[in-house]
Amino acid sequence: MKKLYIISSFLLLSIAAQAQIYYRFSGHVRDTLDGKPLVKASINIDFGKFGAVTDENGFFEINIPYGEHAVSVKFVSYRPVRDAFKISSDMTRNYALGRLENELEEVIVSSKGVEANVQRPLLGVNQLNIKTLRKLPAAVGEVDILRGLQMLPGVTSVGEASNGVNIRGGTTDQNLLLLDDIPIFNPTHMFGLFTAFPSEAASGVEVYKGSTPARFGGRAAAVMDVTLTQPSLDKFKMNGGISLVSNRLSLDIPVIKDKLGVMLSGRASYNDFLLPLASKKLDGIKANFADLVGKMFWRVDNKNTITVSGYYSKDFFQTELLGGIGNINATSTQYDYRSRSFSARWFYAISPKLNLQTTVVSAYYVPKTLLPELNSDNKVTLLSDINYKQAKTNLNYSFGKHNIEAGISATKYKVAPGELQPGTSPSVLAIKTPEEYSLETGIHAEDEISLSPKTTFSIGVRYSQFYALGPADVQVYAPNEPKDPLSVRDTLSFARGKVIQSYGGFEPRIGLKYSINDKTSIKFGYNIMRQYMQVVTNTTTPLPTSRWKTSDKHIRPQVSSLIAAGLFHNLPGNVYELSVEGYYRTTNNIIDYKPGADFLLNSNPEMELLQGKNRSYGLELMFSKKKGEVTGWINYTYSRSLNLVSEGSTFGEQINFGKWYPANFDRPHSFNASVIINQGKHHDFSFNFSYSTGRPFTMPEGFIIYQGVSYPYYGVRNNARLPDYHRLDFAWNIYQPSMKDKRFKGNWTFTVFNLYGKKNAYSIFIRTEGTRVSPYKLVVFGAPIVSLSYNFKFM
């Protein structure tokens, strides 16, 4: 027994002695490309317990105890390397670090080429990197292009469930939204909760909020150009995902190798039973959507290619809140809106420096409101539609120091503002408002000239002409009097195809870039844009069923003039990017509504509308880190957007007594930050933080009691503001690169939207109950929203 005790004690002492033995851990740290030693690179072991730095030969040496250890090797402007090992004797390990400037850009906001933001003569142009966008936190795990856009400077939204974005003081309908040249009239699903752009099928997004190329027209504020991914011509590919909101699947099918390929991408959501988990305000709501995009690419020969793209979307939304339409006794309100569109492009390479592109586009948008009647199977239907047809040709020519683009276009509009179909209801009268017909033509030319190694000049001009066409009956109002039924003096009838009214004018586009050095440039830009089609609404955010209205004899087109200037700087190594931009924009003939306006089934909406001026200005600062273990950006914007509406001296011809007032989306201060932490091949983490001043709203100045009921009195427009908005989001992406089938890759995404549960106010409204008046705050997302999605790719 004594011998056993001695032996046991000896073994324990041996193990303890071994645990305290230190071994020599050494090696070299070098550059991956040229093999040069990295001097004073830091070696960090076990999160700071042990450490060392390399000498002039890139050599390090350190004594560490027996066991398992984690090491981190870092050097300025290089991507860090992490390693794990077990040491039981002296060990040598060498490390090679790669320069960040040699990596591809990983940040969501980037430009064409490493130094394009400094060298291009364009301001306010951003690209959204779809690959990086998938890493960012998203509401209920649904990747959202529009929410990514809101993280840019100068881009805001009136709320978390709003339909679209406001860019540099513009309304949502002042943005031209294109999907492979197809205009998107309703950019969201579920009344603004999610974007209508399919991220699985998108290859890139360009946003023009400053200098806009001359080929774009028809909108007054900005352009968002989304490009669908090009079909593969040599390999079958499949990717998709499953989330709490939707299921997605995309297919790349090479039909004829190196000749013909087809891409199909679909998304569908039938998980509306989960909406109450996101917010109690969504309880009792039924909602689902589906969209489908397709793209065919045919390489006819070395000089000719043909591309055909198609887009279809369908939304259904039901709420127990009732819309007030006549004397309809409905049990609920159902919204059914659909888009059906396509584009076809023929590309002809006449020579290596000269090419011709001809495109035809057709878009059809049909929003419906369905009202199921009480104690009946009948549904009263309110519907409208937009029928859009376009043909255009662009010629591109490069020679010497010139890059020239010229083209022509013609766009035909047919708008059905509204039709009430009673179905079998005997108490509802059928109503149909007159259809609107119009034609818009345009011609443009643009040249980008390299005047010197430091100076690049871009000059372009677009001339647009718009015709409001018959058939139509047009009211003639008494001059210098408000447009109302009492001032109608005559009615003019126009036959089909006859010109009712025409508008037009030049739209110059100028951009100038001067390079102070290879890393720094200053830029100046100026443009004029005209908009002949707009949304008329008396809500803060346009609903999918809001009325679109073309210009006519009484509604003049909106004309916007923008001046912008900026300083752009890339730090050495092209890892960091800094920009400062300022802008001033004026818009004539903006549309606002009279108090108590009602556009529903109104054949003469000009009686409810007033036109005036908008003045918007701002300063945008942005700093981004484009490469490395930690990437991301921060930006701050100070901006104002003010309206002045005064068409006459009477109360009914003015808003806010003819004085300037904040626009609905005027938010002076906004701050955004996005950070992506890349943790090797298996994990990355990301955070989004957003802050902005609360948007304006109109608060009653007093109350009038009539027959025992209180009625609010409104005087000054937008005289109060909602509380400031702020929100933090988090996402964790878990990758599976070690699967046996290397052609199949999958990842899980865990997201927490509104991490600290901020109850941001979407709106504040007044409710009267007898003599009692109570304010209420509407909150859409008042708690953290946790989601989990799985994404896969097969190649």
Number of discrete helical segments:
5
Summing up helix and strand content along with how strands pair, one would put the structural category as mainly beta
Query: Rough shape?
Result: globular
Poorly predicted regions are 10-19
Pfam families: CarbopepD_reg_2, Plug, TonB_dep_Rec_b-barrel
Family: Belongs to the TonB-dependent receptor family.
Signal peptide: 1-19
Subcellular location: Cell outer membrane
Q: In a few lines, what is going on in this structure?
A:
With 795 residues, this protein is mainly beta. It is built from 5 helices and 52 strands.
Explained architecture:
The protein has 795 residues and is mainly beta. 4% of the residues lie in helices and 56% in strands. The protein contains five helices and 52 strands. The strands form eleven sheets. The protein has a 22-stranded antiparallel β-barrel. A six-stranded mixed beta sheet has the order 9-10-17-18-13-14. A hairpin with a 4-residue loop joins strand 22 and strand 23 (304-319). The longest helix has 18 residues, at 2-19. The radius of gyration is 31 Å and the shape is globular. Residues 10-19 have low confidence and may be disordered.
What attributes does this structure have?
single chain, 795 residues, mainly beta, 22-stranded antiparallel barrel, 6-stranded mixed sheet, 52 strands, TonB-dependent receptor domain-containing protein, receptor, cell outer membrane, transmembrane beta strand, tonb box
Describe the protein's topology:
Elements (H helix, E strand, L loop, with lengths): L1 H18 L2 E10 L10 E4 L4 E4 L5 E7 L1 E8 L6 E7 L3 E2 L2 E3 L11 E2 L5 H4 L5 E4 L1 H4 L11 H5 L5 E2 L9 E2 L7 E5 L2 E2 L4 E2 L4 E2 L6 E7 L13 E7 L8 E6 L4 E10 L3 E10 L5 H4 L7 E14 L4 E16 L13 E19 L2 E19 L6 E21 L2 E20 L9 E2 L3 E15 L4 E15 L2 E6 L10 E7 L4 E19 L2 E12 L1 E4 L10 E4 L7 E13 L5 E18 L15 E17 L4 E15 L16 E2 L6 E11 L3 E10 L3 E2 L4 E5 L2 E5 L6 E2 L3 E11 L8 E10 L7 E9 L2 E8 L5 E10 L1
